[in-house]
UniProtKB/TrEMBL annotation, chains A, B:
The lineage of its organism: Bacteria, Bacillati, Bacillota, Clostridia, Lachnospirales. Residues 75-204 form the Alpha-rhamnosidase-like N-terminal domain. Residues 248-574 form the Alpha-L-rhamnosidase six-hairpin glycosidase domain. This is Alpha-L-rhamnosidase. GO terms for biological process: carbohydrate metabolic process. Pfam families: Bac_rhamnosid-like_N (PF21209), Bac_rhamnosid6H (PF17389). SUPFAM superfamilies: Six-hairpin glycosidases.
Length: 656, 656
């Protein structure tokens, strides 16, 4: 079956470039703040083919030149001819394509077909397997256009106000809009995540002032719940734009607020799962590496869509020369390398590792060159250092950065082992760095990690310790100390971002303090929903009221009210309540450790390669049904081997 | 005065990309056969400014976001606002620009102005001085559009033939065309450099078959002398498209055929001097490094246009990662580095060397990594090895390639010395390689160089020996042997390309055999003109007749009849007859060595920085008038210091 083919990575490169130049901010298009990479303008496709003779046809984005024949002395040139007759036998087909507007790609059908067995060169004799996607399997579905789906959505309330009309769509959406019945204009159009935003002429983030043509104005999709249009006669048509993803994971429990959070998290996450994993759907709509890292985990308990993970990781990796951290942020380069290995573990996609290895090496080389003499990485001029929005001591070498750096080196070495490439000693380097982290950042009196040793302040934050807990491979004593002395210690400032809640809640669950996940969901997310949220916010402070919730970065409505990193309950409930976790490569082995936590019971599904695992817990019984083999069920200290497609029922101990 | 500014090199990168995707071949657009580089989609411009306060305006290609203030705590964001008011005092202006269609660039006027004092970053904290051009000094003259000039041109003969009309424009031109009065069509339009080409439906290189709109068809500029249109009612309007360059050099002598060759060479060269130096105006219209190298020399005796040299060298250098030779050809990478130093010597433009040094290092590093253990460079899979179209022995390491490689290293070291950068020992490496070339390729019996030592054939060609003569720094004995045993030896196969005639004629002139330049011009170019050439051909064999002259690459009309590398008489007559040659940096010192050669007399001008040097030779007297100081006149073994703007007259010895 024919597919569109392109130089591996170029599809992602192109859509990443387009996506990052689509932000709207206070009436202007806002250029991205980090480095973008452009597609290659000219490439050549090649395949050795054996046929009984016949015609093949070429569809292309760009101008083509075709050569048939492997060697200069038997080559025949066909120029831009789109239908070519092959003689019976074996020969080589070369198709050179130039495209300076989108990116070069082709679709070949007939006696030969384009698919992932073709090779592609960027005109430097650097032949690689092509990129493909199941989305582009017909000649008229061209890959310059990302094939979203559309559904009409309607307002639920309409109100004449301030000389115009305010539409309320009832919940956050992302939709293309067409306004008709307009006068001569110019007409003001404001897309608000909140009513207040839509009504604020100055601080509404997505807003336009345009002259209608024949009474009509149309806009590409933007995020909104409310729409204000400064014309009382306006009619609106809106179409929700989305990636059609199957909801493979599910979770339903005895407590309505938790179910509601799960549902809203799933919707929030779906809105942000598009060409790539986005941070939020209103403001940036950009691809951030550490945000994407968390999205990988959520995706695995909701859509289990390998393709969006792959697209995101390719897009984030960028191109060579690699001269600046991913998203300009040091920790984000580390998270990208860690994500590559996480991706491999989940899907067993060795082919991807083969394709990405050169870029991975470029990113790692960039990091290694920026090490200081002591092996630590400090922010160089122009680098951003994130970790979290928190009152951390960011002097000199930071504990959190070194932990992630060591983990990235460990993952790099693990990937090299998979694809049989020399890890250049990075496995050992990771170990060495971990020892140094203990030496410099572990406070033997406090028995926890400090943010920085260079300042002398010996400041302790949740962030550094949680990262140590999750990424440093600490022993149980150290972990216990971290949990008790930091995570359960109210004197250490609380995490305020859903971003870091993802990590903190993991620690709660791993440390076995089983009711804190539910507490966090109820209190943090529950009260967020109580403010009227129809999707989950980028940040949330329960002590605020009213429009305070919408402010961020010093501006009244700049907070994203639909942010992917807030969807972590999907992952947490799937992994720590339904209890399904991959322990091998692509779930060739996996654990099922159902854990009621603070809940009376629940049922749900976790997607795995080739099916799902269904888990149901009530007060008497645990039932697990896996569509694939490889699972081990853990209940009350006992293990049960799960057979494929055979339900396993275990009675719960009465005292649990 | 404000100018458009861009990230240094991006203007050339963009136009190089566009230019290389404009070729037409047998009815199809033909993609380039080598690697192209795309412009950066997002960059940031910066300047620290001190003003008394007031408004500045921004014009941009792309979306912008403006920040005023040097540090995060005093920065103010203006988004896409195009008019901004500055407070009095000193601050920093940052303008981020995204453009995925052409390339990001801005024009700022008002209280601050964009010019070459601004810096630009490709979002990797890699701040560099911006690129500018005098061509773009007004806000509405945007650099995405190369500003050519236009002149109407008319046909001189019109003929109804084969159901259509054949127009003869009298000479080769490069013009945009508009055909009117057409029927419904489809109409065939053929652009021919020869009558035969225009009349050949199958083998005419530039041809179209299009449906007129309202009786009209328009085409972007193509090369032609003849136009065939398959509609008897057609009317044509044509406008010659050209770069307005001043003819600063001139040459006029006692022999009409030589004057005619000079004039036709100048016109040929002008047609090919556009965004960059092109190879030929009909077929490729591409930028080839070794062709461009020769164009530098011609330019210096005709237009003395520094800007086209700079644009060409920037475009050829490409970007990083540098993964394949320039134009895919090994010798062309060497010629590029040699050209950089030639450019510096001519114009003293140290700023250019500063800007290009990173790319020069990338190209040289690529070459150094491809050396074999013996230090020689052999063609690797995918490399092309050119030197010349000639029956050379191309086995293993080639003499010509090593000679150029050594010269490139020498030039690299010389450039490093100018800009105070470490040459990494390449000066010494060049010397070492030269010794090795003598050891392996110099045949001590034949007393000349062989092409290859690995084959055992010990083949002798003009090409290898001429390159040794010109680039290897041989002593006079070796040079004399080369000249007598190879260049004057009719048993060594003749040079057949004007490309290598450029080098051979230099050797004739340097070796003092003073009448051979005229002989070559008369016989080779004179007979080319006798075939009806109105511009100079890519290749010419005097033994051919009729349409044979138009065939190349196995196809009847694929030869370029207007090829830049044939314009060398401009340089040769200027350098070896008028005798003006730069001997310092930017003509701070220069020689004038008038040499009548085989001519009774001549007069002409050679451009130099800030003026011209006029030289006139008749049978009695030599007169030289230089508008700049620094010159030394050499006549009959005596030297005369040339004062600026003062004529120097020297009587010739009667026996010369």
């Amino acid at each position: 079956m024919s597919q569109w083919i392109w130089r591996y990575g170029e599809f992602e490169c192109y859509h990443n470039m387009i996506l990052h130049t689509r932000r709207q901010q206070y009436g202007y298009p806002e250029p991205v703040v980090w480095k973008l990479y452009a597609p290659e303008p000219v490439v050549c496709f090649k395949k050795e083919v054996t046929t009984e003779g016949g015609v093949f046809r070429i569809h292309a984005l760009g101008n083509i030149s075709v050569i048939v024949g492997a060697e200069p002395w038997n080559q025949k040139k066909y120029g831009g001819q789109r239908e070519i007759k092959l003689e019976p036998g074996t020969t080589t087909v070369l198709i050179r394509v130039a495209n300076t507007e989108t990116f070069p790609c082709i679709y070949v059908d007939g006696v030969i077909e384009s698919d992932d067995t073709w090779l592609c060169d960027d005109m430097s004799q650097d032949w690689k397997k092509v990129g493909t996607s199941e989305m582009f399997a017909s000649s008229d579905q061209t890959p310059d256009h990302f094939p979203f789906s559309y559904l009409p959505v309607s307002w639920v309330k309409k109100e004449k106000v301030e000389g115009g009309v305010l539409f309320d769509f009832g919940k956050e959406t992302f939709a293309r809009t067409c306004f008709s019945g307009l006068g001569e204009g110019p007409v003001k159009v404001r897309f608000g995540e909140s009513r207040e935003e839509a009504m604020d002429a100055k601080w509404c983030v997505i807003r336009f002032e345009d002259k209608p043509e024949k009474g009509v104005l149309s806009y590409i999709p933007y995020a909104f719940r409310y729409l204000f249009v400064s014309d009382e006669n306006v009619e609106v048509k809106a179409e929700y734009e989305y990636l059609p993803l199957e909801y493979k994971g599910s979770f339903h429990c005895s407590e309505e607020i938790i179910n509601k959070v799960w549902d809203v998290a799933a919707y929030t996450f779906h809105l942000n799962s598009r060409e790539f994993f986005l941070d939020g759907i209103k403001r940036d709509r950009w691809v951030w590496s550490a945000d994407a890292y968390q999205s990988l985990f959520v995706n695995r308990y909701l859509f289990f869509d390998k393709e969006i993970e792959k697209r995101t990781l390719i897009a984030l990796g960028g191109k060579q020369p690699f001269k600046v951290h991913i998203n300009t942020i040091m920790d984000y380069s580390f998270f990208w390398i860690i994500s590559l290995y996480e991706y491999y573990k989940t899907y067993g996609d060795k082919d991807f590792l083969e394709q990405i290895q050169d870029q991975m090496k470029a990113v790692m080389d960039f990091c290694l060159e920026r090490r200081d003499e002591d092996g630590f990485m400090r922010g160089k001029p122009g680098d951003w250092v994130f970790i979290d929005w928190a009152p951390m001591d960011k002097t000199g070498a930071l504990c959190g950065e070194q932990i992630l750096f060591a983990k990235a080196m460990e993952c790099y070495a693990a990937i090299c082992a998979v694809i049989g490439r020399d890890d250049r000693g990075l496995g050992g380097e990771a170990e060495k760095l971990r020892k140094q982290i203990f030496e410099k950042f572990y406070d033997t009196e406090k028995k926890v990690f400090i943010d920085s040793y260079e300042s002398g302040k010996r400041n302790v934050t949740r962030q550094s310790n949680i990262l140590a807990y999750l990424f440093l491979g600490c022993d149980d004593t150290v972990k216990k100390d971290i949990y008790e002395r930091v995570v359960l210690n109210d004197e250490v400032p609380q995490i305020t971002t859903p971003y870091f809640k993802f990590y903190e809640n993991q620690v709660h669950c791993k440390a076995g303090n089983t009711n804190l996940l539910e507490k966090s969901i109820r209190e943090y997310y529950g009260s967020m929903l109580a403010t009227g949220a129809t999707t989950l916010y980028e940040e949330y402070d329960p002590t605020m009221t009213g429009v305070e919730h919408y402010a961020m970065y010093g501006n009244p409505f700049e907070k994203s009210l639909c942010h992917a990193w807030s969807a972590s309950p999907i992952y947490l409930l799937g992994n720590f309540r339904l209890g399904v976790e991959n322990t091998g490569i692509a779930y060739d082995t996996f654990d099922v450790r159902p854990n009621p936590g603070d809940l009376k019971g629940f049922q749900g599904k976790v997607p795995v390669p080739g099916g799902t695992v269904s888990v149901s817990v009530d007060q008497e019984e645990i039932r697990v049904y896996s569509e694939i083999p490889g699972g081990t069920l853990y209940v009350d200290g006992k293990t049960y081997t799960l057979e494929a497609k055979k339900e396993c029922r275990v009675r719960r101990k009465s005292d649990v």
